[in-house]
Amino acid sequence: MMKDFSTTAPPLEVHDLTVAYDRRPVLYGIDLTVPAGSLTGIIGPNGAGKSTLLKAVLGLLPLSAGWVKIFGGPLAQNARRTGYVPQRESVDWDFPVNVMDVVLMGRYGHLPPGRRPGRADREIARACLDQVQMLPLARRQIGNLSGGQRQRVFLARALAQESDLYFMDEPFAGVDAATEAAIVDLLREMKARGKTVVVVHHDLSTARDYFDRLVLLNVRLVAAGPTAEVFTPELLQKTYGGRLTILSDVVQSLGEEP
Amino acid sequence: MVQPWTEDFMVSFWIVVMGFLVVATCGLVGTYLLLRRMALVGDAISHSILFGLVVAFMVFRSGGTMVMFVAAVATGLLTVGIIEFIHRQSRVKTDAAICIAFTTLFAAGVVLLSVAEVKGPVHLDAECVLYGEIAFVPLDPAVEVLGLVLGPAPVVRMAGVLVGLLVLATVFYKELLVTSFDPALAKSLGIRVGIWHYGLMAVLSIVIVSVFEAVGAILAVAMLVVPPMFAAQLSDRLPVRFALVFLHAALSSVLGYQLSVWLNCSPAGAMVVVGALLFLLAWAVTRPRRAAFPGWMAPN
Amino acid sequence: MRRLGWFVALLVLTTAAPVEAARIGEMADWNFGSQAARFFSLQDPSVRYALGGSMLLGLCCGLMGAFLVVRKLALMGDALSHAVLPGVALGFLWGMTKNPAAIFAGAVGAGLLGAVVVQWIRATTKHREDAALGFVLSSFFGVGIVLFTMIQNLPGGAKSGLDGFMFGQAAALGPEDVWLLAGVTVLALGAVGLFYKEYVLTSFDEGFARSLGWPVKLYHYSLMLLLAFAIVSALQAVGVVLVSAMLVIPAAAAFLLTDRMGAMLAWSAGFGMLAGAAGAFFSFTGRSLPTGPFMVLAAAALFVLALLFAPKHGMVGRLWRRRSRAARIRRENTLKAIYHVMEDGGFREEVVAVGNVAARRRETAVGARREVAELQRAGLATEEGGRVAFTPEGWQRACEIVRNHRLWELYLTNAAQLAPDHVHDDAEVIEHMLGDETVRRLERRLNYARRDPHGKLIPGLADLAAGAPPSERAAGFAEKGAA
Q: Where residue B85 falls among pLDDT bands split at 50, 70, 90?
């Protein structure tokens, strides 16, 4: 078993990653390895660069420095093994597509240009919708859904991607309690099936229960590891509290400098 | 090579002065439009104003200044009203609503124009819409006040609009600033945001109609958009931006006129080209400082 | 091949459809009638070109415009249609003749450059989309004006046809123009048909598309290229300003009519063709009136119809639904008032005086009589001699409303810990909204409680079924019955 893990590349490996916005670093020198089959939460205060880390890893933002490896290779090679759940606000909910259409988009990565999703893809999409208990709403326009239902549609789309590594950007933001519980169940089930899931999370009070590994982030990496080791008052204080890091001062002055 | 400044100084002088006044006036209003992210509302009004002018001509059979101003304000407010109506009453987004409103009014204007042509000639033609007649400005009869010759009528009128605008911008500086920058804050301060919005639109309409004859509807859009963009590229402070707009107006009118003489082309078009080049220059100077990601990529 | 088949079918449709409508023209005055007859007989080749060209234009612009509208790039059409002007002038300068190929190439090049500059301003400056579009629109146009006025002042370049460029003249469409439009339309249909899922996903969720490793920029610029093709081939017919109208207005009307992208494309293309045909017709029958403006006015009329009468998103439908909901709430409040009067009398009487209902509703006697009459029309109650009684259906509805109200009050006091005197107003609103499913859940959550926070009995399922007033004794029975 041990040998197996050492030869297989980890799903996500980040080395010295820096992302700058207006020349101001929003992420600085991040080193991170996410082991296979883990359920990892990224936590940190507002503006810590949690979503930025996700977008940078997915190639949605240009890197100022460092590199990212997905399953030991560049993202483009393993795009099919990578699923993504963006923030809900990132799309126009008046767009003329229904729930089924959106879930089918999860299959698009498996289809070459010019090919439409077929019967098999529809079956997968239906199964994924059923898994998040949204099948009865399949024909609804996406604008006529509650916040929690919209999140479930995005999750179903990610499931339909049938990936091995998932990135989710604040899936718990603004959803009802029932949806939150459903998402947690889903995450655990995915983990049980051997998937690796990385979740940006804003709620410190639930982080310990939901995830088995945590990444504490505040512009730079504060700590990463099993929840039991990382979720300590000391490290949390370092992440959230006060102005312990000289870096944040430096960052501030970099931003003001012309 | 032609030497405009020595051969026919007065003609060149009045064209450049007119160009300066037009660009400065448009740039002042445009600064607020840019702050409110409404640059294309200027585009919309400058097109739809054709409708108002044609109707005014058909009703009053005259092109007096007051008639034109009233028609322009009415059409401008009508355009903005239609845009807001469509946006509020349906799920059509603002950009599409803008397009629907002004193209429909423009089409109605063209139809009325062609009907009016059947009944009798109306002084509105394609060239006027396209690039205006700034070259003929010096030929207009001069205005005399108390025996003092001020200059050609359009120049004097334009100067009047600019002075009026400067007075308004000075008197209502803080109201315009706060309603543009933070409407919610303005509302909490008891400022009627809607009135300022429509007031600005009315002023915009007057500005557009008064530059319409000199530079045409579409080049007026350039003068509304480009000088403020130039200024915004170089400064983040509103008073400085106004000063930069005046600088831009002076440079683009003088250099633009020179360019038009060299190339033997429309002075208004050449002023726009120089104005755009000035923006590119400002961009090149400030580029390293303002590298940014496109909006949707912005972190968090 | 199937696309081509469609295209041929559409062409046949364009020639066949107006024949039926020819009779309308005959009833108008002779002059108009004969013109209309000439138009619909399609004998005149110029009519055929104008009609075919206009409809192809509408189809092509409608197709492209649908993507512009959902991408919130409606004004990109406006910007690019102005931005092609310098390209047209440069194409003209290439040999100083009206060489269509050179003009086409120049215009498409300028349009594409415009799209790149928009993207570039947004990426490298702090200016927003509106400023970027305004800049490209007006400064490209300025360059075009400079070039055109230069051409006009060059020896032999006097006639450059700038007016036509501005306003368009579909009547001047020749066979080459129509073939060009047909070619561009086929290209657009082909591209959209082939890359439908790519265009939809990149429009809907760009970030997700990029996470799939797709070349999102390539799809964006290929769409811009098609847009430039559509604009340039349509310019001759409708002119600069109105091209953007033909791109956006039919698509916006379609956006109000459907919730599916495929259907929106079809509606948009259909509206475009309809507007094109209408424009060609009015322009031909109306003594050399310009075509473009009539097309746009026809499209605008279609948009207004959609804005008013679209089934789901139209104003009339929404107003009607709002009014019928208000009427239902009013009816339910009257039912509740009657129930309350009966309850105050200990359910000894099954008939209630309208005057008591008025007092309960804080209404005038006239108002209460009108409300009771409304109940009677809906079959919920009957009124005779100033006294009102429930029908079985009315009794059931009244029980449901009262139950909803009291369950919600109880839920708020129990679950949300609100004081009993704080819950009434909230329940007044919620009682009309609760669905059966929610009511079941509330009942379970509240352990089938029988009394509300004010000590009043909550009518249960059994009471509804039996048509009898609620009582403590029936409670146990109701639970058993429900289980």
A: very high
Identify which has the larger pLDDT, A32 or C158: A32
Quick one: C342 and C299 in the same domain? Answer: no
**Domain coordinates of chain A in residue numbers?**
2-256
Q: C410 and C466: one domain?
A: yes
Residue C9 confidence (pLDDT) above 50 = no
CATH number at residue B242: 1.10.3470.10
Chains with ≥3 CB–CB distances under 8 Å to A: B, C
- Min Cα distance B218 → chain C (Å) is 6
| Contact assignment for A46 to B91 by CB distance below 8 Å | no
Q: Which residues of B touch A26 (CB under 8 A)?
A: 299
Residue C161's pLDDT band, with cuts at 50, 70 and 90, is low
CA–CA dist A120, A126 (Å, integer)? 10
- B13: in domain: yes
Residue A250 pLDDT greater than 70, yes or no: no
Residue C456 domain boundaries: 394-482
Which of C367, C390, C413 marks a domain boundary?
Answer: C390
Residue B143 maps to a domain: no
B177-208 tens-digit pLDDT: 888 888 888 888 888 888 999 999 999 999 99
For residues C382 and C461, membership in a common domain is answered with: no
* pLDDT score at A4: 45
Interchain CB distance below 8 Å, A90 and B296: yes
Residue B296 lies in a domain: no
Instruction: Judge whether C200 is closer than 8 Å to chain A, CB to CB.
Output: yes
Separation CA A115–CA C482 (nearest Å): 53
Q: Encode pLDDT of C81-139 as tens digits.
A: 999 989 988 887 876 666 778 888 999 999 999 999 999 998 888 888 899 999 999 99
Residue B79 has pLDDT above 80, yes or no: yes
Say how far apart CA A190 and CA A196 lie, in whole Å: 8
Chains with ≥3 CB–CB distances under 8 Å to C: A, B
- C255: which 2 tokens? 């956006």
What is the rounded CA–CA span in Å between residue C198 and residue A114?
8
Number of domains comprising chain B: 1
- CA B96 – CA C58 distance, rounded (Å): 17
ipTM, interface predicted TM-score of the complex: 0.89
Smallest CA-to-CA distance from C453 within C405, C413, C404, C401 is with: C413
Chain B CB within 8 Å of residue C201 CB: no
Q: Which of B43, B270, B290 lies nearest to residue C146, judging by beta carbons?
A: B270
- Write out chain B residues lying below 8 Å of C256, CB-based: 90-92
Q: Tell which of A23, A95, A133 to mutate to test the C interface (max C CBs under 10 Å).
A: A95
Other beta carbons within 10 Å of C408: 24
CA distance C335 to C399: 9
Query: Are C377 and C401 within one domain?
Result: no
The per-residue pLDDT for range C266-318, each reduced to its tens digit, is 999 999 999 999 988 888 787 666 788 889 999 999 999 999 999 888 899 99
CA distance A253 to chain C (A): 21
Q: Is the pLDDT of residue C16 over 50?
A: no
Please give the tally of structural domains in chain C. 3
Q: What is the token pair recorded at C5? A: 């088949």
**CATH code of residue C449:** 1.10.60.10
pLDDT over threshold 60, residue B276: yes
| Residue that terminates a domain, selected from C269, C287, C310 | C310
Has residue A23 got a pLDDT over 70?
Answer: no
Question: Would B47 be classed as within a structural domain?
Answer: yes
Chain A residues close to B299, C-beta within 8 Å: 19, 21, 26, 49, 51-52, 55, 61
Please say whether the beta carbons of B137 and B154 come within 8 A: yes
CATH code reported for the domain at A2-256:
3.40.50.300
Q: What is the CATH number of the domain that holds C365?
A: 1.10.10.10
C-alpha to C-alpha distances, A6 to A35, A37, A78, A225, nearest whole angstrom: 11, 14, 19, 18
pLDDT at position A249 over 70: no
Q: Return d(Cα A201, Cα A217) in angstroms, integer.
A: 11
